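Quick illustration, no need to memorize.
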Amino acid sequence: MTITDWPRTAAEPDPETAAAATVSGAAQPVSRTPGTVSDALKSVSETKGATGTEASSGKLTGTQKWTAGAIVAAALALAGIGLYLSFEHVADFAFTELRFGSLGQGQLFAVGVDVGIMVMIAVDLLMAWLKRPISWIRYPVWLLRAATVVLNAASGAPKGTWKLLDYVAAGAHGVVPVLFITVVELGRTAIDRVVRPDQAERDSIPWLRWILAPVATARIFRRMRLWGVTSYPEMIHRDQQLIAYEQWLKRKYKGDISGGH
């Protein structure tokens, strides 16, 4: 058995039908004209995204530029607030709990972590702007931000028995770092879409599917990444074809598809 043994669903050609096709063969070039037009329409429709809207040219209008500037200003303000709060919490926690020799060393530790994160974020955004994104740089940023979230949350932990309000306080210390890294990811994605408008966007899997069929959805998500498929409907179609072929093999070989035939 080989993987090429696909079931033949098409019927064998009828001799009379084949003879009629031979006689009418002269009219085939004329009948092919609509197919050419339909192919052209298909190629036009394929340039649209998954939502049916045409891709934008990537150029911003005056209003969009002002809006983008306001968003950048708000993001910088959020970054300043986050750095200030994180510096206070992490520096104090590093001195009192992480056994740094002095408060000054704890402050240097907090400054080093925050500056390192900001440098990597700046490089990430710059390379995305230059159409030369560095994909791996996001992972150490996420790791360091996760460390700062943990340190910020730990700085709000109580000394004794935990109460409900203590959990809320610990979680509140990590809200701003999480919000900041979320804004950074949004900015990176926005820059990438503006500078590379022709790049195929990867469809997202509906959240309802994750809830109703988490295992099967995780398998589809994995295959989309491994096979480089950006279209969710195309991936569903491929998955259905694979399931149908597997069922056909089971019926043909009475459930044994181990490859021993």
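Confidence is low (pLDDT under 50) at residues 8-55.
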